[in-house]
Write a structure and sequence with these properties.
heterodimer; A: mainly beta; nine-stranded parallel β-sheet; globular; B: 6 helices; 15 strands
Chain lengths: 104, 194
């Protein structure tokens, strides 16, 4: 479904802006701004601030997350950064260091 | 399977450098260099604003920058390319538009590869364009006042030298903007005639 895929073995150094879903399997350094779902798959490395709709992380993410919907850190995820979203879940087995802001 | 293919979707805009070893399909906009050992496809809606290097490049969209194919470059119907094209095999289909130098043959892509890899990590197109500047600068210092020597370096790639002149080397005058000169000449002549 995803319209934009950063495949394994690909490194993007820069800024990604999109209105559609993004799936990262490779490496992104810079910034990611999406309006729809962002998925950071296992094995992916993202060193960037990420803005998006619902955000699912199973890989490594260093940077702040801002979501208009929800953030799910799955088992195996490794996240360093602050998370700001309406809903946040952190699965057992996810590594996380940072602040959570669920604006109550 | 699908994971090894990178897709830049239609509404996606990447400002920066894409590199790696997978296939890349551009349906959106990429303002920055693309360097991969895989194939690159630039769709009808795709726009790339910098150099592209890959094994096999298939272009149906717009590219402003050089295309370097390790195997082949195919400009299909609808392609719009402003820049040089180099590959062992180059195909330009009916309906493809391009402006630039074409070089076929096996030895073609070797030199630009070094340039692309030694490139400073350029996040933006203009900077990426300026990548050959360090090379010419490195050559330039010994013959300080020999203008022709440096100009021979530049002659092959007018677009690149434009960026190089603006970014770094103060010694070299900016390249002549020929179309503008022609226009003004023509206008002046017309005025004189009238």
């Amino acid at each position: 479904m995803a319209s934009t895929v950063i495949g394994a073995g690909i490194i993007i150094e820069g800024e990604i802006t999109t209105d559609e879903d993004v799936v990262v399997v490779g490496v992104v350094r810079g910034k990611v701004s999406a309006k729809e779902a962002v998925t950071i798959q296992q094995g992916a490395t993202v060193e960037a601030d990420v803005t998006g709709g619902s955000l699912t992380v199973a890989g490594t993410l260093t940077g702040n997350i801002t979501s208009t919907d929800r953030v799910d850190l799955q088992a195996g995820a490794r996240v360093v950064g602050n998370v700001k979203a309406a809903r946040v879940t952190i699965a057992d087995g996810a590594q996380f260091k940072g602040n959570v802001d669920m604006d109550l | 399977m699908a994971a090894s293919v990178t897709v830049i979707g239609r509404t996606t805009r990447v400002r920066g450098r894409l590199s790696g070893d997978g296939d890349i399909q551009v349906e959106g906009q990429v303002i920055g260099e693309i360097v991969t050992t895989g194939n690159v496809t630039i769709d009808a809606h795709g726009i790339v604003g910098a150099n592209v290097r890959g094994r096999r490049l298939i272009v149906r969209g717009a590219v402003q920058g050089d295309l370097l194919g390790d195997e082949a470059v195919v400009l299909e119907n609808g392609a719009r390319v402003v820049g040089d094209v180099r590959a062992p095999r180059v195909a330009i289909a009916h309906g493809a538009l391009m402006r630039g130098e074409v070089q076929t043959g096996d030895d073609a892509p070797a030199a630009p590869l070094v340039r692309a890899q030694s490139a400073t990590r350029a996040a933006v197109a203009p900077a990426a364009r300026a990548t050959p500047a360090p090379a010419t600068k490195a050559i330039a210092p010994p013959p300080v006042k020999v203008a022709p020597a440096t100009s021979t370096n530049v002659t092959a790639r007018p677009a690149l030298s434009t960026a190089g002149g603006s970014s770094a080397s103060p010694r070299r005058p900016p390249p002549p903007v020929v179309p503008v000169l022609k226009k003004t000449k023509g206008q002046i002549l017309k005025k004189k005639e009238r």
